[in-house]
Structure formats: structure tokens, C-alpha cells
Amino acid sequence: MASYEEHTLEFMKLALEQAKDALANLEVPVGCVIVEDGEVVASGRNRTNETSNATRHAEMEAIDFLVEQWQKNGLSPLEVSERFSKCILYVTCEPCIMCAAALSYLGIKEAYYGCANDKFGGCGSILSLHTSCSELPTSGFASSKKGFKCTAGIMASEAVYLLRSFYEQGNPNAPKPHRPIKQRV
Amino acid sequence: MNRATGGTARRMKNKDEDTVANTESVIIHIPEKPPFLPHLQPTVKVHAAVIEPKDANTLVRKLNQIAPLENLRHVKRVQKKCIDGGKLQLCLLLSMAVENDGEVDAMPYEILELVKSYQLSTFITKVCKYAATSKEEWDEQCKLWPTSYHPPTYNISGITGFTEEESQSVLSFMRHAIDLSTSCVGQVVNAAVIVDPSTKQVIASASDWVISSASPANKVSKEGSCSDYPENLNSSNLENQQTSLLDSSIGEFEHVICNVGCLHPWRWAVQSLSPSSGCWHPLRHAAIVAIEHSSARDRQLFPDYKLNGEDSIKEECTLSPSKRQKITDSDFQSNDHSSESVRPYLCTGCDIYLAWEPCAMCAMALVHQRVRRIFFSFPNSNAGALGSVHRLQGERSLNHHYAVFRVVLPEEVLRNKVVDAKTDGYG
């Protein structure tokens, strides 16, 4: 396996901390941090069970924090877009199709992820929304399709370990648990 | 401009995707994959090689590691053929053949290594691009190269047709969504209406919040207020918008719909407005906001809900919204307001009405939220993910699948044509 720069691993460790926090709160353990100019500007973890909103993935939590923050600071949409174009995402699991599309809409610079998401992955597993080319030619509209660089497999085994712990303990919120929920003592 | 037929005929027909009548409302099922005649299914080129049967297991295992068939999960790795004399010949699929300007690219390095060490002579052949959805298609596919076939295991109400009553209800909610999408003067945005079909109650509705100038018409329906069913929708607003839309030139029209979030999801940054106007968000497409409203409603109606699922949630339930969990067709008839009320699992059993075909973000959000059926009016050739650019309802790996319908309303036919002409221009 390729060796990554130390700070890449450091940021992924922070994302894993977020994922552990999710696990402790009975959420699907996926966490992320967003880094701008070498500094963590946002972090997030899954809150789908807490909110009864299955779209509250780690990436969405972090993105919403940034948009709100930057709006409070009076940034215009164009300025917000410029800030996102300097941002790097570190997330423990491959962004799903929804999040990958969102990251492309925002025009982030780059994403690093841990394990692949072979059911919903939008950065290579099911769709490849991070690549700017698509089957259709892009429109000539003012702001066109954006891709972002994507690197997989950063501390993937740690991410998988957390997910496995979650599914072994059983998702208490699933309608008909595929696996029995273990009684927590 | 023949608008005379608009607004008169209300008869509903369920038709195939390729036939759209101009004067009648039509609900068109949009299947998991583009409809093709069995013998005209699209194919892709692949690299393959004849192999020794004794090497088959090793080679398949190695290939699955270095070159998994990500977009061709339905295609089998090995083809068995009887050649003359009853001898069995095995062909192995190595990888997809990537084409550039009509030239087939070389295989990846790892596969070339494999080819070299086993001294395989490779050739290019074709396999079917999409998984078969019928026995007839599968039979045709296997003539090219063997594939696997899983017959559909679900039957979501509507795929096989709508009753007159269901059709009227679908039409009515779609009008509601289109009214919402045109409720801001001078521009059109996308709008979403989430409906519980068992009670015909609007659970939540929203329009895009992507740009700030669009005054959001958002609403969470209050518990018990079943009057939300838009029985007597006043369509004068729509008619007015329509007239102004149709009277404007194509250029102006383009300008009018350029704020539809799902149509131009990359465009949010170039909106021209003062930063102080507030209330904009690049990702707050109508469907996302509506989902948020519906989950807020659930949390409000079931405040005592515990994540552990063990605790009783009996009190506070006299309001008794309909039980939405695990709705089957037979449940629709027997939906008396039972005292046993549980927080619904996301939007299980619910339908959503959207003016425009949703983008990949919204379409996937609706997978996550377990929506049962999606109805939209206008296709989105720019970024649509339910048949136009992507087709999420056909991605078999997803853990939930909804049924997708396009609703064509008669008075929209003209505008529809303008929209098609406009978006096709980018295609």
C-alpha cells in the first residue's frame, strides 16, 4: 500500500474519532473532517437515527456547518464557492451517491476516504460522480459540472472495523432488523 | 400555439414511455432501464480469452481481485461453448474494453501480466450492458455472453396501472407541486410534495432554497389537518405563470427556469444577489428540504421515541397519524386509526411529487429516506437521475428501490416542449 503523507493519516484519524462518536450514539459509524489550508474547518458524523432523517450523513453535517458559518460571516455565494474549492474532505467511508453529487455541486478540491461503499458509493463503486466527464457532454451553462480528485483506502480497516461493530450490535432503528439486536447491559 | 385542448380532457391513461398523448394527462412508468427490444439491447465491448479449463478457478479468482466487473455485475466471467466434436471450450472475460475515439485502449497492466504468464490469446467481444428484466431479454443476452437474471421481486402499486381514482389523486398532487414550483414571481424552481397515499395527506412540502430571491413556500402539515389534500386547487396561479412563460421568448424562458436546483445544480455560485439577502444554500433542493420537514414532523409527533426502541411510545398518540410502516396494498383499505401508533420508519410507504426529475443528490436522498413512489412532471436531461443521465431505480445494489412515474399534464404540454427544446440544446 502506498504510504501517505503523515497529515493525511492525522486528518483521517480525526474523521475516525467522529465515526466512533457516532457509534457511541448508536448511529452508523461514519465520520469526516473538512480541511481548508491545512486546518480543520468542520467535522461531522452520521445523525440519521437521531434526526429520523436518513440524509443526515457525516458529509452533510459538516457541509451545512460551513455554509451556515460562511453565511454568518457575510460571504456571497461566489465567495462560498471559492472557499469550497480549497477544501479537502477526509471521510471514513466512500461518499454515497447523494454526498458525492453534493460534493461535486459544491466544487470541493479533493476527497480522501477509508473503505469503499459497495452498495451506495458515488466515488467509483456504483457511480463515479467525482469524475467530471459523464456520458452526456456538459452544458455550456455559466457554471458547469465539476469533478474532484478522489483517493481511496486511507485507514480502511479501521473504518470497516467500526462499521462491523455497529452491524454486529444491530441497528436498533431498522424496520425489521436483519440481525437480532443484542441486549445492551 | 394550440392551447385550446389544455385543461379540458382529464381522462387518464397509463401508457408506455414512448407514447405521450398531447391532450390527455398521462402517467408513464419509468422502468429500471431504458426500454429496448430484446434483440436490440445495448452492448459494451470486453476483452476476453480462451482458457484451459484447469486454470479457470485460479484465473477467475485473480481477476475478481484485480479487475472486478463493477458496472457489469450481471455478466458472468466464464462462457462455456460446445465446439465441434462435443468438446467444451471456456472463454474468460478479462475486463471492459475502454474505447477512445473508436480505438480500444490496452488492457490494464495487471491483466496484461496475467495474459502473459498464462499465454492467453485475447480477443474483443460484446456483452449486454444492462441486467435483463425479463426472461425474453435474458435469453437474448445469453446468445452473446452468459449473464445472470433475477426476476423482479416487488410490485409497487401503479406499475401495472392506476385506477381512475388513483389517477385523479396523482394528478391533483402533481398540480400542487407545480403550483409550488411557480409560486415565485418571474422564476420557476423545483418543488416537492411528500404524500401519505393511505390517507391522501400531505406530509410535507417545499420548494428550492438554493437561491435567496425565491421566497420559500414551505410547510409542514400539522397533525390532524387532513384538509391538505388539494381537492380544489386553484390553478389560476399556474395558468398565469403559464401564460407568461409561454409568451416569453425561449431565451427568457431559459432564464426563468435556470434557478431550478436539480436542473442546474452547479450553478448556485453565480446567482447575482446581495449577500445580505440570506436564506440560500447550495444543497437545499426541494426534495432535501421536504425530507427534512417530514422528519421534523415525525420527531414532533413522536417526541418520546427512544432510539433503543424498547420504551413505550403509547402516550401522546391520541393524535394518531396513519400508520405508515410496512404499508401494503391491502393495508390501504383497512387503515382505521388504530390506537397503536409508531414513529414511521422514515418515509416508508410515502410518495413524493416533484415538478422536475430530481438530480443524483435528491434521487439518492429519496432512496435513503425509503420513499415508495416518485412522480415528476418534467424530465431533466442536464442532471436527472431517474432515467435522463443516471437511472437510480435500476441500480440493483442499492438497499431500497422506488417506482418512478412521469406525469404529463395537458396544460403543460406546450411548456414541456419548450423545456425539452431548451434542455436538449445542452445534450
UniProtKB/TrEMBL annotation, chain A:
Secretion signal, residue range per the UniProt entry: none
Q: Does the keyword section mention Amino-acid biosynthesis?
A: no
CDD domains, A to Z: nucleoside_deaminase
Q: Which InterPro entries match?
A: APOBEC/CMP_deaminase_Zn-bd (IPR016192), CMP_dCMP_dom (IPR002125), Cytidine_deaminase-like (IPR016193)
Looking at the record, the residues that make up the CMP/dCMP-type deaminase domain are 6-144
Q: Tell whether Zinc is among the UniProt keywords.
A: yes
Q: Which Gene3D superfamilies match?
A: Cytidine Deaminase, domain 2 (3.40.140.10)
Pfam families, alphabetized:
dCMP_cyt_deam_1
Q: Name one GO molecular function term.
A: zinc ion binding
One GO term under biological process is: tRNA wobble adenosine to inosine editing
Provide the alphabetized UniProt keywords.
Hydrolase, Metal-binding, Zinc
Instruction: Provide the protein name.
Output: Trna(Adenine(34)) deaminase, chloroplastic
Query: Which species does the entry assign this protein to?
Result: Nicotiana attenuata (Coyote tobacco)
Which gene underlies this protein?
TADA_2
Automatic annotation (TrEMBL), chain B:
**Gene Ontology biological process:** tRNA wobble adenosine to inosine editing
For whether the record's keyword set contains Cell cycle, the answer is no
This protein's record includes keyword tRNA processing = yes
Location of the region described as Disordered in the Swiss-Prot/TrEMBL record: 1-20
Q: Tell me the GO molecular function terms.
A: metal ion binding; tRNA-specific adenosine-34 deaminase activity
GO CC annotation terms, alphabetical: cytoplasm; nucleus
Q: Which UniProt keywords apply?
A: tRNA processing
Q: Name one Pfam family in it.
A: dCMP_cyt_deam_1
The record's InterPro entries line, in alphabetical order, gives: CMP_dCMP_dom, Cytidine_deaminase-like
Q: Which domain of life is it from?
A: Eukaryota
Describe the location of the CMP/dCMP-type deaminase domain by residue ranges.
278-389
Q: Which family does it belong to?
A: Belongs to the cytidine and deoxycytidylate deaminase family. ADAT3 subfamily.
Q: How is this protein named in the record? A: CMP/dCMP-type deaminase domain-containing protein
Recorded source organism is Nicotiana attenuata
**Taxonomic lineage:** Eukaryota, Viridiplantae, Streptophyta, Embryophyta, Tracheophyta
